[in-house]
Amino acid sequence: MAEIRNVILLAPNGKTEHQLCRNTIVAMGDLKRYGRIDPAFPYDAPITMTLRISEGRLHIALSGENDEELQTFILSMTPYRRIIRDYYMMIDSHEQAIIAGAHHSKLEAIDMGRRGLHNDGANLLRDRLSGKIGIDHDTARNFFSLLCCLGAETGLAGGRHERV
pTM for the whole thing? Predict the structure, then answer.
């Protein structure tokens, strides 16, 4: 297992990770503190992950301690479109329910649905990376948070939530 030393997000519009969405900073911090990956190649030193979305594909570049490129994986974003769109719809629903003064139980139900979608996205990510990079559930959830932020920047959230 290799620890994640750093995570770099390359937004298509040149925004930095601090300009993307508020979940980005938390997810990146958690990945740097607790994130571990198990690459399909022998490597046990800290790894930097660079993430970007280009032409509907997620690019995951892994580099080593001296910034040597280790491997790059490219995944289609198509399987994530619905989950990311629905995830942001749940966030919208939660915000609207708060504004409308909804009962605590309704807010909890919406939040449970959002967490379920987050888990679905994390599980899909783990499945699609199987054989390339092994990641635990918590790392996959943080990774999916970053994917959602990048996805929102590329229009996968239905054009909403450029800065959540």
Answer: 0.84
